[in-house]
Design a protein that fits this description.
The protein is mainly alpha-helical. It has a single domain, classed as Growth Hormone, Chain: A, CATH 1.20.1250.20. The chain has 20 helices and 2 strands. A two-stranded antiparallel sheet has the order 1-2. Helix 6 packs antiparallel against helix 10, helix 9 packs antiparallel against helix 17 and helix 16 runs antiparallel to helix 19. The longest helix is centred in the last third of the chain and has 31 residues. About 50% of the residues are buried.
Length: about 450
């Protein structure tokens, strides 16, 4: 295989990710949260549902040291097949509302999603090491851009269709159809998963097997700095998605179907962001793009605070715009962070353990923080905080705290290093000054000609 090109049959990975995205966008995303809210679930339960996947990812620590010996494909196929079966029960769950109390349905939903996410947690440790092993270092940015583009397109389709069915409140039959689409997408994804190439010798046990001590991984400075940044982002930033959905539904009064269409629009805008990075990130590096994303977050959470505090009008227009633009920068963040992680630990002994440890630590924070924020929102429902003439409700306090916590994220970002990468300042100068100048010069030249 040419070290500068993508491997053959890599298209199977793209299609696996696409159909898998159809599945998880529904069963782990907005449709699940909207279904739980329709049943009357409190914010802490919504936080629990949002946190199940990251919390159960701790199971990776049990399996990661043996993933290469077991085989990446075998581990992934076993786990993914089992979790797809759990979606059958989720599909039938909305129909049980006709003869079970809402509380019982909520409990069943939590149990089903616990089993689903636990199976995911066991298998998922094999995915990034598998891809890192078969995709050359020089084209990992290009691969990730294509990969995320397929995910984005599938997400747009899944959410747009779900939005059509869930346009009206309280339609349990519609939730059954939507969760059925999640099952179908998961089942199809298995077909392509079985056709992704596996590194030679990795699954046959004929290569030296390296098992690292977990504490030794935490002595790797470059890895720890990147891990700290990713953990702070999960704790202070990415834990808000669930509650932004609830805020838009309950405070801005946007209907469920529209929310899913907006989420689909965010995924579509994210595809554009991936397109911009495809040929640039391998040359410029991940670090400057992470800086650009941080600048967006400072504006993003301040805007939500202003909306929640009723300091600006036009929420019905601004809220969807913020949600869609968030999709653009979320795609840039995910691609940049994943590429930097792959290039930081992809060539080290015990690669699978590095990926697993990063996933588990970050996921634990991501799983606990929605529960914590949900508990806080439940207890601040009746609070009205008056500061300098402003009256702040629970959501205004929530978004204000998120904005202030960006200081912690910034401190962690400053410690992240990447060799041969340009700076955020240089990237912004090229994007905002040099590139427009070149386009203007070219346009002027053509006009004179």
């Amino acid at each position: 295989m040419d070290s500068e090109t993508l491997p053959s049959r890599i298209h199977n990975a793209y299609f696996f990710q696409a159909f898998n995205a159809v599945s998880w966008q529904i069963c782990l995303g907005s449709p699940l949260i909207l279904f739980a809210r329709e049943l009357g679930a409190p914010a802490v339960v919504l936080g629990l549902l949002a946190g199940l996947a990251p919390l159960t990812s701790t199971l990776q620590l049990l399996v990661a040291p043996h993933a290469e010996r077991i085989g990446y494909r075998k581990l992934m196929v076993s786990g993914w097949s089992s979790r797809v079966v759990m979606l059958i029960f989720l599909t039938l769950l909305p129909l049980s509302v006709a003869f079970l109390p809402a509380t019982a349905v909520i409990v069943l939903m939590i149990l089903i999603m616990f089993a689903f996410t636990a199976l995911r947690g066991v298998a998922t440790c094999a995915w990034l090491p598998w891809i890192t092993a078969i995709v050359p270092r020089a084209v990992r940015g290009e691969y990730l851009s294509r990969d995320r583009t397929f995910v984005g397109i599938a997400s747009v389709a899944a959410l747009a269709v779900a939005g059509i069915f869930l346009f009206d409140y309280g339609n349990m039959g519609a939730f059954t159809i939507v969760f059925g689409l999640s099952f179908l997408g998961g089942a199809i994804s298995l077909h392509f998963l079985n056709r992704i190439p596996e590194p030679k010798g990795r699954s046959l046990g004929d290569q030296p097997f390296v098992r690292m001590r977990w504490r030794d991984l935490l002595r790797d400075g470059a890895f720890v700095r990147l891990l700290t940044f990713a953990a702070m982002v999960q704790l202070c930033v990415l834990s808000t998605g669930t509650f932004i959905t609830v805020f838009v539904r309950e405070e801005v009064q946007i209907r469920d179907g529209y929310i899913l269409w907006i989420t689909a629009g965010a995924a579509l805008v994210g595809i554009f962001g991936l397109r911009l990075l495809r040929r640039r990130i391998d040359g410029l590096g991940s670090r400057p793009f992470l800086g650009v994303v941080f600048l967006w977050w400072t504006f993003y959470y301040f805007a939500w605070f202003m909306l929640a505090a009723n300091l600006i009008e036009g929420a019905v227009l601004l809220a969807p715009l913020l949600m869609m633009m968030a999709g653009f920068f979320a795609s840039i963040y995910e691609l940049s962070l994943t590429r930097l992680l792959m290039n930081t630990v992809g060539d080290r002994p015990g690669t699978t353990q590095y990926f697993a440890l990063q996933s588990v630590i970050v996921s634990l924070l991501a799983g606990l923080s929605p529960i914590m924020w949900g508990w806080m929102l439940d207890n601040l429902r009746s609070v009205q905080l008056v500061i300098g003439g402003m009256t702040l409700n629970a959501y205004a306090i929530f978004f204000g705290m998120q904005w202030l916590l960006l200081c912690v994220v910034f401190a962690a970002l400053l410690r992240v290093k990447e060799g041969n990468a340009t700076t955020t300042k240089t990237l912004l100068y090229r994007a905002l000054v040099v590139a427009p100048g070149h386009r203007f010069s070219a346009l002027t030249h053509r006009t004179r000609s």
